[in-house]
Each structure stands twice: as C-alpha cells, then as structure tokens.
Amino acid sequence: MGLPPQPPAGGPPRPGGSGGPGAPPPERDPWNFWTFSLGLNGYGNAETSMKQYSVNGNISASRTTENWKISTRLSGSQSQNTFEYEISGVQKKTVSTFKNYGLNTLLVKSLGPHLSAG
Questions:
Q1: Would the CA dihedral through 75, 118, 63, 14 be positive or negative?
Q2: pLDDT in tens, 14-54
Q3: Residue 11 and residue 54: Cα distance in Å, rounded?
C-alpha cells in the first residue's frame, strides 16, 4: 500500500493549453475545441378512445480552452393527448397540447488555476 502516482509538476494536460514543462505541444484541432451534439426522441401510444405522443429535440455546442468555457443548448418539446368520449349520447373530443422551448448558455472566464468567473 502506498500513495497513488502523482501527475507531473505542471499538472495534467488541459484542453487548449500546455501540459507543463517538457510536455509535447498540443495537437492541432480542426474543430478549434468545439464539440456539438444533436438529440431527438419520441413516444406514442394509441387506444380506441385515447391517443398520445411526445417529441423532444435538442442541439448543443460547447468549447473549453485554458481561458474560456462556453456552452449553449437549444431544446424543445411537444406533447399532445387526445381523448374521445360520450356524454348523454353526444360524442366529445378533448385535445391538450403542451409545447416547451428553452435556451441555456454558460460563459466562464478562467482567472487563474483555481479561480474563474461566469
């Protein structure tokens, strides 16, 4: 039993920065440290007198460098429920729809090895 191995004196490599003294230069990144994500999912169910569906989607972009962390996400969803029923011999139909959209953004500036603002 002993202590776990320690990182080099300069610490572990950071995205967009150097890994410390003697570390090889960072590789060229054709995406300039940006990452992107797309998501889409859905659900549906139907019976004789009831139908429902839900659809959700999002897109996000993030970038992390030694000096900045930037992240943004746009999302949206829609759900709909349809009910068919009879009251006193009269056919009725009720439809409820819910829509939701959102935009989230994070912007953080590094002020030092253990301090940031954003």
A1: negative
A2: 555 555 667 777 678 899 999 999 999 999 999 999 999 99
A3: 46
Taking the C-alpha atoms of residue 3 and residue 12, their distance in angstroms, rounded to an integer, is: 17
Helix/strand/coil for 113: coil
Paired tokens of 44: 């549906």
Q: DSSP letter at 33?
A: T
User: What is the spatial order of strands in the sheet that 34-46 belongs to?
Assistant: 34-46, 50-64, 68-87, 90-112, 115-117
pTM given for the model: 0.65
Exposure pattern of 70-90 as b/e (b: 16+ CB <10 Å)? beebeeebebeeeeeeeeeee
What's residue 27's pLDDT? 78
